[in-house]
Amino acid sequence: MDKAELAQRVRKAAYLEGDFVLRSGQRSKYYVDKYLFETDPVILAELGRLFAQRLGDADVIAGPELGAVALAAATSMASGKPFAIVRKAKKDYATGKLVEGTPVAGKKVVLVEDIGTTAGAALEAAAVLKEAGAILLKLVFAVDRQQGARENVEKAGYAFEAILTKADLEI
Description:
Elements: H1 3-14, E1 15-21, E2 27-32, H2 34-38, H3 41-53, E3 60-64, H4 69-79, E4 83-86, E5 99-101, E6 108-116, H5 120-131, E7 135-144, H6 149-155, E8 159-165
Helix pairs in contact: 3-4
């Protein structure tokens, strides 16, 4: 599937119009519902393949809960590399870890994420990974809303990539 077809599929599956409050607190007249495109098996498989192409020499893929877990799993299956899940908060039971699954200490890690607006959640996950001892190579987003995510990620000292942008979705 080429980039234009993927963009068209994502837009058809997940583009909504209305009045939305984003995680960043910003208001928007449109929303790209990650759960609608991530639960489509054709789109998910293609995103996994495209994320896998961007891993370079990474040892581990990481995805923040909840939205990027499916993307990390799809990328793992496409690449044959293990993945880890970054929690938003420690649980007060079981192991109480913030990074679940494959250990990341001393490993080269690529963080995959769904939608980038300001990249706040992705940068929080990046901080958790660094605290856990990961060597973070880059952050890769399925969709960049082109509202500051790239700038914020690069300002924080990380490499930024996006598979699709707002422009690709013709928004």
